[in-house]
Design goal:
single chain; DNA polymerase, domain 1; 3-stranded antiparallel sheet; mainly alpha; 54% helix; two-stranded antiparallel sheet; hpI Integrase, Chain A; 5 strands
C-alpha cells in the first residue's frame, strides 16, 4: 500500500496490523477509532482549506489521503479541536498514543519517511484517586447476592428468561425456581472472586474451570499482554465457588465448554453482564459509592494496603507491569487517613 490511499484502506490496513501484533481487542478498537477520527479531521480540514465543495459533501472513508503530506501542525490542529470539545486529558493522551502507533506503522509498513506524531507532547493526566468502598460496604455488596436483595436480572438472563425461567415482571424473582437460585449462587461467587482476587473483569470472564487450583486455593489468570499469574483466594470465595460449581450444570449447554462462569443461555458470561450485576447489588448504604468491577479491584487493593500488605506483593497480585500503577493506592490510603484524622481528632 502506498502512502496515498483511501481512508478506508488505510484504516483497514492499520486494524489488520494491530491484530497481527496481538494487541488487546479493547485497545485495538480504541486506537482504530482514534486514528479514524484524526483522518476525518485531516481530510476535511485539507479540503476545506482548498475550498472544495465536493470535499464538503464527500464521505471520509472514500476520500483519499496522502499520509506523507501530514505534518505536525495537522496533528496539533486536531488536538486543539479535541481540547475545544472538552476532551479529558486521559482521552487526549490515549489519542496521541494511537496516532504515534499509527504513524510508526506507516514508517515501517507504508514507506513514510518520518513519524510526525513522535513530537507530540502527552498532556499530564489529571491526578484522580480511584473510588473505593469501605470494608463494611464491600462486605454488604458481596453478601447482597444471598437472595435478601435481588434487584433484577442481567441483560442476557432477561433475554433468555422468558423461554427458560418465566421471570416475572419488574425483575421479581421466584425463589422456588432452581435456575433463579443458581443465578444468585453464580452472582455471589462472581462478587466474592472479584473482591478476593482483585482481578480485572476481563480476567474473570476468561476463567475456565481448569484455571482453579482447589487444593491451593489459587487461580491462574491470563492478564494484559497474555501474561499469566497465579492469584490466591480465601475461604469465603472458595465456599461460594464450590456452591456455584455444584449449580453450574443448570446453566451448562453445548456451547459452555470449560468456561467457569456462564449466562443462563449456557455461554461464557460477558463483561457487560458482570458490570451490571455489580451495580445491581450495590450497597443500601447511601454513603457508599456506586462502583463497578474495577471499583472492587481498587477496594481490595486499598484494604490490603491498609492492613499492612507490602506494595510489591499488591503489584504482583494485580498484575501491574510497573510499580507506578500500584503506588496510587498509597495515595488512597493516605487520603483515607487524613479524612479519618479530620473527623476524629479534637484538634484537627
Amino acid at each position: 500500500m502506498s502512502t496515498s490511499s483511501t481512508v478506508a484502506e488505510v484504516v483497514t490496513g492499520y486494524a489488520d496490523h494491530l491484530r497481527s501484533r496481538d494487541v488487546s481487542e479493547h485497545t485495538a478498537r480504541a486506537y482504530v477509532a482514534d486514528v479514524s477520527d484524526f483522518l476525518d479531521h485531516a481530510v476535511h480540514s485539507t479540503k476545506l482549506r482548498r475550498g472544495s465543495e465536493e470535499g464538503r459533501r464527500s464521505t471520509t472513508s472514500g476520500a483519499r489521503i496522502d499520509l506523507a503530506s501530514v505534518e505536525l501542525d495537522d496533528l496539533r490542529s486536531w488536538l486543539i479541536t479535541l481540547d475545544d470539545a472538552g476532551a479529558a486529558k486521559s482521552t487526549v493522551a490515549r489519542k496521541i498514543a494511537a496516532v504515534r502507533s499509527f504513524f510508526a506503522y506507516g514508517v515501517s509498513n507504508l514507506g513514510l519517511s518520518n513519524n510526525p506524531a513522535a513530537r507530540l507532547r502527552t498532556p499530564k493526566k489529571d491526578s484522580r484517586l480511584p473510588t473505593v468502598l469501605k470494608p463494611q460496604q464491600a462486605a454488604d455488596l458481596i453478601s447482597a447476592a444471598d437472595g435478601q436483595r435481588t434487584g433484577g436480572t442481567d441483560a442476557s438472563d432477561s433475554a433468555a428468561g422468558g423461554a427458560r425461567t418465566g421471570d416475572t415482571a419488574q425483575g421479581d424473582t421466584d425463589k422456588s425456581d432452581p435456575l433463579d437460585a443458581a443465578k444468585r449462587i453464580r452472582d455471589a461467587a462472581i462478587l466474592e472472586m472479584l473482591y478476593a482476587t482483585a482481578i480485572r473483569v476481563s480476567e474473570l470472564t476468561g476463567l475456565d474451570r481448569s484455571d482453579i487450583d482447589h487444593r491451593a486455593s489459587m487461580i491462574t489468570v491470563l492478564g494484559k499482554g497474555d501474561k499469566e499469574r497465579r492469584v490466591p483466594f480465601g475461604a469465603p470465595a472458595r465456599r461460594a465457588l464450590d456452591d456455584w460449581l455444584a449449580a453450574r450444570e443448570l446453566f451448562a449447554g453445548p456451547h459452555s465448554g470449560d468456561a467457569l462462569f456462564l449466562g443462563v443461555r449456557g455461554g461464557r458470561i460477558g463483561a457487560r453482564q458482570v458490570r451490571e450485576l455489580v451495580h445491581r447489588y450495590g450497597s443500601d448504604d447511601p454513603s457508599a459509592p456506586d462502583i463497578g468491577p474495577h471499583g472492587l479491584r481498587h477496594s481490595a487493593a486499598t484494604h490490603m494496603l491498609d492492613r499492612g500488605a507490602d506494595l510489591r506483593q499488591i503489584q504482583e497480585l494485580l498484575g501491574h507491569s510497573t510499580m507506578s500503577s500500584t503506588q496510587i493506592y498509597t495515595q488512597v490510603s493516605m487520603q483515607r487517613l487524613q479524612d479519618t484524622y479530620r473527623r476524629a481528632h479534637p484538634r484537627a
